[in-house]
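Bump. Still looking for ABC transporter ATP-binding protein structure tokens.
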Amino acid sequence: MRAPLTEQPPRLEIRNLVRHFDGRRVVDDVSLRIMAGQVTCLLGPSGCGKSTTLRMIAGVEMQDSGEIWVDGKLVCDTIFRVPPERREIGLMFQDFALFPHLSVAENVAFGLRTGTRTEKRARVAELLERVDLIQFIDGYPHQLSGGEQQRVALARALAPRPRIMLMDEPFSGLDNRLRDGIRDETLSLLKDEDTAVLLVTHEPEEAMRMADEIALMRGGKIVQRGAPYNVYTRPADKAAVAFFSDVNVLKAQVNGALAQTPFGRFLAPGVPDGTDVDIVFRPQHVRLDFDRNGQGPLPTPAEGVAARGVVERARFLGHESLVEFRMDYDGSVLKATVPNVFLPQKGRVMWLTVRRDRCFVFPA
Ligand SMILES: Nc1ncnc2c1ncn2[C@@H]1O[C@H](COP(=O)(O)OP(=O)(O)OP(=O)(O)O)[C@@H](O)[C@H]1O
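Sorry for the wait, here they are.
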């Protein structure tokens, strides 16, 4: 009988990392596992501790406690420490800089410490082919556009075949038009090289586009981890919903596992009677109906009761329109998005319903 295949250890594992600055816990018990060929995005607002986490993994910052493991081997705890240059980690930051006095080929070859001249030249050519810049192999950085320089920087970071790639907002210096293409190209190159990637960003859209797994960080802690679809559709709390999009919030109190609202009753399974809850939903999950002689649509099981609102403001955003309503029931504002162009006049009466299967009920 064959021995069972042993499970591969994660390419990168961090366990319970903690870092204080000025008595404040900036990174608070962060643990993560990333397998080879997997991209994890550390996503969170400015100042939540993302870069500090990355810097500890790179070895340029020391943790107060916790461990860093690579391919099942301890790389750093509070006593033992492999120096940064021996960690086989590639780095890419927003303000990546190519060496201006070195040619494109020399820039890419910079980190290659082993191998003959021919082997190095072959690796450089392979990567420049891959990022579609082989024609610039003997050119200099100032002859390249920002996007092209970024691709050279990527080739340079990948040249020594790092086991792990750490990227800190690497695309934020690029204009929007370039960015999508370079993100996609970077992603496919990283996948081909089977690198484990930890990418730091504060842009949900970037994380959704790049990540196999998103680790949502707030106040030094990872508050949720999962595939982008799961983090988006099953957010851990109200702030997690709000991080990805505008939100609407209805306040209600639970009675008999139901929360009564102007939009009808919402299920609140397992929530004790008397608990105040927030019912949270995104503007794209509001349905709009025209007023028919003072009446809205009839209630349905999927969308409940319609509530009456008056248009306060409508704006066209490109691929959708955002309409804000002043609601009759308590004077609060609710937001709805509608595909394409829909710009009703201020003061127009409409009826709003909410897609129940897209609402989240959280304790207030
Ligand atoms: N060397 C330092 N000394 C003191 N405080 C620091 C130091 N480095 C970071 N901090 C603080 O730690 C907190 C987390 O910083 P960090 O750079 O990790 O956040 P971030 O999530 O990457 O934010 P951003 O997206 O703005 O870069 C911030 O409040 C920052 O001011």
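The chain has a mean pLDDT of 92.

Edit: fixed formatting.
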